[in-house]
Predict the structure.
Amino acid sequence: MEDVKKMSYTETLMSWERPDLRVGIPVTVKYPLVPTEKPPEYRGKPHIDPNVCIGCGACVQACPANALTAEWDFESGLKSIVSNPARCIRCGRCQEACPTGAMKLTLEFELATPNKEDLVEVVEHHLTKCKKCGKYTEFTERQVKKALQILPKEIIEARALEEKMQLCRECRMEESVKALATQEHVIGDPSLLPPERTKGGKE
């Protein structure tokens, strides 16, 4: 099993010994008394690795069946990613969208249960706190850490970005308004602009 994990997806598919239809295959199998073999590309029950998930919600946005949802609890400072395999259509979009590889479609397909709630999977994440007002933001601690790791430092000023991420939505808007007002003051008085660029000027 360890050797299979080290191989690429294409190599895994090629290494799987498929039955030779030319010589025939058994009409009956010993399943469920004996586990049945699934091909490597089989799309089974989705699973979220809680140790790798950052709670960004990319999988939630990509899921067309609403089998994945995101829930915020700003009083407790938690964000939950909820997976409901009973609604999953096995399209694999969540796995493609996940930036960390936390979302995987397993080979598991035996999901019969008297209670669908038994299939629900919940991964909780701690939210960051606003440095200005102390309220919880919509970003998780892992999400902020990951964003600062992958964003190019040459294009985006890391320090300014980090400060923005540690503010709640209201405080970010307030800081943006202050920055725009300061920028307008530095540029100069709008009344000094040409008439065609002022509000009451004629074009």
Remarks:
- Confidence is low (pLDDT under 50) at residues 197-203.
- The chain has one domain: 29-188.
- Residues 29-188 form a domain with the Alpha-Beta Plaits fold (CATH 3.30.70.20).
